[in-house]
Design brief:
The chain is mainly alpha-helical. Helix content is 75%, strand content 0%. The radius of gyration is 28 Å and the shape is elongated.
Length: 391
Amino acid sequence: MEEEFDFESPEEQKKFVSRFEEMIRNEDQYFFDAGMFESIIDYYCDKNEPVKALQVIDFATSQHPYEANFYIKKAQLLANMRQFTSALESLDKAEILEPQDSDILLIKGTIYASLGKYDDAEALLHQSLQNADNKEEIYYQLATLYQLQMDYEKAKHYLKKALRYNPSNPDALSELAFCFDMLDKGDEALNFFKQLIDEDPYSYYCWYYLGNCYHRLNRFEEAIDAYDYAILINESFSSAYFNKGNALVNLERYSEAIEVYKQTFEYEQPNADTYCAIGECYEKLDLMETAREYYKKAVKLDHEMADAWFGIGVTLDFEERYFESLHFYKKALELDEENPEYWFAIADARYKLGQIEESEEAYRKVVELNPTDIEAWLDFSSIYFEQHKIE
């Protein structure tokens, strides 16, 4: 006789997992009912251990071969591991048992999208809408499908549909903001996020994306106000602090920006982007030693952050340590060879070191990459002028 279990209890779940792991150690066969297996699978999925979850599913399907849900879970895991052929085989087994299950069509659709079979994916996703309980997820996947095809107008349409079910879905909000950006529809984005806030004024995500809309429209004071509302609702929302810092930088309020950037460290581990942003603020305040400290912290966390290597070079150049600055400019250039700002700095440093031919080559690269840079053309011309190459 089967026991009654509270599957919502973490303690019970751990008991099931311990019993399963004991069975593996003993190379034995214990019986688990379907609910217990589901709990164990969820445990390993939550721990991001897909191989162990798949092992549990193999045992589950051997003991419960007519439970379609196990084949569906297996397909989801295999699809996440990009083992699409095996995932589709598992879905075929599930479909025999539950031919009308919308989740099967949804997963198949996402797999076909990943394989570039967009027409098949679209047909399956629309078919899955017919008797689905999770329409929000299907609309989101349809939007993803259209984004893959760079049809941002259709993607926008389906993301709006998804947000009707959950106006604070962070992934849908993020992708919708991206679509608005790609379509260059800043005013439409602004009105849409204002409307969402009218419906749910306590959604910190909506305030955050409203702030981003103002930011893109160069309305930085209004962006700061929106970020402040997001922070007021959720004081641990580090992204809002970071973007508020960016808005303050655009207003040249560097000291305030530094304090706001540093507040992110109260809610998340310091990261290279934030250290680099703080370094740039100190650089703008001509506090070069402090700026260099933060740029060094940035490259320690992310050795491939070109802007931080470049920032170290700028601080050294300010101190007239041109040979040292050139070394760091080169490190930045190795990571981003097509950046005209880096080439410009190298051209200038080589000129200051008397390396005229090398400076000419670097200026030539600057104006090739950015032919509208007036300052670069003028500096380039001055090199020829000093050599009496007037024409």
